[in-house]
Write a structure and sequence with these properties.
The structure holds three protein chains of three kinds.
Chain A (H helix, E strand, L loop, with lengths): L3 H21 L24 E12 L2 E12 L3 E5 L6 H8 L9 E9 L2 E2 L7 H7 E4 L10 H11 L6 H14 L3 H4 L12 H14 L4 E5 L7 H14 L4 E5 L3 H7 L2 E6 L2 E7 H6 L4 H7 L5
Parallel strand pairs in A: 3-8, 3-9, 6-7, 7-8
Antiparallel strand pairs in A: 1-2, 1-4, 4-5, 9-10
Chain B lengths: L1 H9 L9 H42 L1 H13 L3 E2 L4 E2 L2 H32 L2 H15 L3 H19 L10 H25 L3 H9 L4 H30 L2 H6 L17 H8 L5 H36 L1
Antiparallel strand pairs in B: 1-2
Chain C lengths: L1 H22 L2 E6 L4 H15 L2 E5 L3 H9 L5 E4 L5 H7 L1 E16 L9 E2 L1 H8 L9 H6 L11 E5 L4 H13 L1 H6 L12 E3 L1 H11 L3 E6 H6 L6 E3 L5 E2 L3 H9 L25 E9 L5 H17 L1 H6 L3 E2 L2 H10 L14
Parallel strand pairs in C: 1-2, 1-3, 5-9, 6-7, 6-8
Antiparallel strand pairs in C: 3-11, 4-8, 4-11, 4-12, 9-10
Classes of the chains: A alpha/beta, B mainly alpha, C alpha/beta.
Protein name (chain B): Phosphate transport system permease protein
Function (chain B): Part of the binding-protein-dependent transport system for phosphate; probably responsible for the translocation of the substrate across the membrane.
Pfam families (chain B): BPD_transp_1
Chain lengths: 298, 315, 346
Amino acid sequence: MNDTTLQNFQTQQDSSTASEGAVRGPYSEAPTPDKGQPVTRNESVEENLSVRVRDLSLWYGEHQALDDISIDIFANTVTALIGPSGCGKSTFLRCLNRMNDLISSVSIKGLVEMDGRDVNARGMDEVALRRRVGMVFQKPNPFPKSIYENVAYAPRMHDMVSRKADQDELVERALRDAGLWNEVKDKLYEPGTSLSGGQQQRLCIARAIAVRPDVILMDEPTSALDPISTATIEDLMDKLKQDFTIVTVTHNMQQAARVADYTAFFHLGEMIEYNATKQMFANPHTKKAEDYITGRYG
Amino acid sequence: MHVSTKRLASSRFAFPGASDKEIRILKRNALIDRAFERSTQAFALAVLLLLGAILVSLCVSSWDTLSAHAVDFLTGDRWAANMEMFGALPAIYGTLVTSLIAVAIAVPVSFGIAIFLTEKCPEILRRPLGITVELLAGIPSIIYGMWGVEMLAPFLNHIFPDLFPAGSGLATAGLVLAIMIIPFITAISRDVMLTVPPITRESAYGLGCTTWEVVRGVIFPTVRHGMMGGVVLGLGRALGETMAVTFVIGNNLFFHPTITGQGTSIAALIANQFPEADGAQRSALLALGLVLFLITFAVLATARYMLNRIERRAA
Amino acid sequence: MLKTSCSALLAGVLALHGIQASAQETMTGAGATFPYPVYSQWADDYQDAKGIGLNYQAIGSGGGIKQITAKTVTFGASDAPLKKDELDEHGLMQWPMIMGGVVPVLNLPGTEKNSLKLDGETLADIYAGKITHWDDAAIADLNPDVDLPDTAITPVYRAEGSGTNFLFTHYLSQVNDEFADTIGEGKSVAWPAGVGAKANAGVAKQVAETEGAIGYVEFAYAKQNDLDHIRLRNHDGEYVEPSSDSFKAAAANADWSNAPGFYLVLTDQVGADSWPITGASFILMHKQVEDPAAAKRVLEFFDWAYANGGDAANELDYVPMPENVADQVRDSWGDIEGPQGESIWP
């Protein structure tokens, strides 16, 4: 899905809808860009489509948690999902690597495409999918293993490395990419749980990027961390987007403003607005998003 | 006035301005509370006392045997009551072999069931299956014994006539014990596996690990002490099991270093002989009981220790 | 364990029952399981005839001995007789009440039922684990007409202590010195080979399920279940069938009058028709009783049983004691004294 023809086609459509939106004014309740597209695109950057979601709805038993979500997520960007608690942003995130499969009462309708392939298709193996979509959670949760093994376990399981030297190299690279190498290089064989909270979270990131996924999902990755560790992780996200597509859920709007290229605002299971982050914070198109961003509720 | 000051000085309950009635009620309540505290303490101590008393009485009543021939008792290769030769080796060997066979069979099966129940089982099956496992754990052992002697022993004899010429034997008893302790180990394994936080499980799945990789690399290491505890509790149950074993073990009182052949276990030997025993035989059987008590006690203490470790960590 | 707790419970229930029953003149006894069917038949008949009931707890010979020494019952019953010094130690006396036999049974497809012949020597070697296959020369020599298969022999025995064990091992010890030295006689012995099963039924079942198995059960049990039994060579060298007649033949030659305290086990008796594994079941009572009335009631019952119990015993495949033995027993009852040293019988 990264061919320029499609890209051009979409850009053309964009410009037409953007002008329509402009006519209706910034406070219109229903901006109508093409389905799933942000109201405004970042200029001057060549962005390829990574994840395409159309009409996605999800139910926990009888309760509908996601209602008709459509969104395009671009490669090598950071996309932040914001919204009040219970708005469905984490649930949505978990649809991207089919983590909701682990909950048997869940039913899903709609399309989630990863690099052009329908992830919910009958023939799709969720293990193969999850190799391409890494995940980092709210609370740092190293495996009950050494720092080294935390990183090396999954690659070894996937037969990504055969020789010990390759494995060492892979571990070092992942830890370097996660900005943790200098802090742990002398104690690789100590338990992962011996690190501080911020280091543990970076270890979890190293663990996720060690399998070289395309997309990294982060579910409020800094909510359990102190401000300094949070800043380190935010810097890291900015670096990592060169190699990975990052989708992050956050409670913290300043964080979204700082790290995200695009921001999607969720409310009660619906995606209310999706826009380039600068636009979203400077000039939200919907009343609900504006109210949330300006702190009227949340 | 004089009396009142004295009272104030002497009573823990008297704050200035407290009426006599108030003080009386406070005193009464304190008394009741202390009595309550003491009696709960007494109950708790009674358990300890009981344990000590059992141990002491076993030692005392088996003293004749232990003091006279402690070495022969532990190494003698036969239990011939009519000749006053009381060698515990066949019974100790049989007890250990049947229990180890049981654990060797039960552990993979139980872990398999527990993994299925916690990781793969569809929600609608989870409760019924879990309840079935718990019900199996509650079946009285004599029923397993009857099943063993009616169905399992003839079946083994039919399938492997050379290994099981009589159907019964140590391996048969081990199999019956395995079936008895599977629900037990399964229930504990399932419970401790459920203590693994969902987030740990999900982050492993999130790396693209298969169920087996998640279980082996993440869940087992997280709860291994708890699962070991479950196994050892199952082992403790197997060691002391009497009725089911007596039916199918073959009850041979000579020491044979065999796995499938006939033998006896401590519990089976005591059950068979104690009702008719007196004198030296009675003392020897009590000494045998002491041996079983010590083995089981050691095993259960180990299990308790392991379970404590996981509980401490979970907290 | 279950057995103990059950009998404890039973004892408790019976003790409660006993309090009420003593007013209605009930007799209490406990012990051997082997004679239990005939004792309870006698008790029913006696209840009909005299209106006096019997509470008998079939808890095994060892339990019977314990209960009578503890004086919780008026009489005890044991399949194995006590030696003279054991009796004296507890101030007890004993006498034979009923006889029966132990019968080796087998499961050997390909041979004609009830046809296989063995002698005591060979039987002992089988149980000592020295003869391991049915086509062993020792067995073949005794059965020249039988085409013996090479099936392995699985000896089956009683796992719990029992009077049947005692009779069987007593016999094997009589006829095979090596067996007497290495395994010996007793209610529970260590068998070098084979399978232990519970009670007559357990032994019979294990034999039935195991090809090549040999076991031993009480005659009454073997007959009622029509098991394939062995013909044994007796002391006179004759092969005999187990039956009431061959037990009576063994008993007829027994010299009870020269047996102090009636200590006599009827194995390997002389006589061309004698079944070699025959034995009596014994009653135990205190020589000095605390409750003369109760003792007298019990003695009257046994007196009645000697005189009138023969038919019931025969019907249940037991062998009643011959009249001359019964008379000797009645004479011995003169030794029983009440608390003041008064004689109770007759």
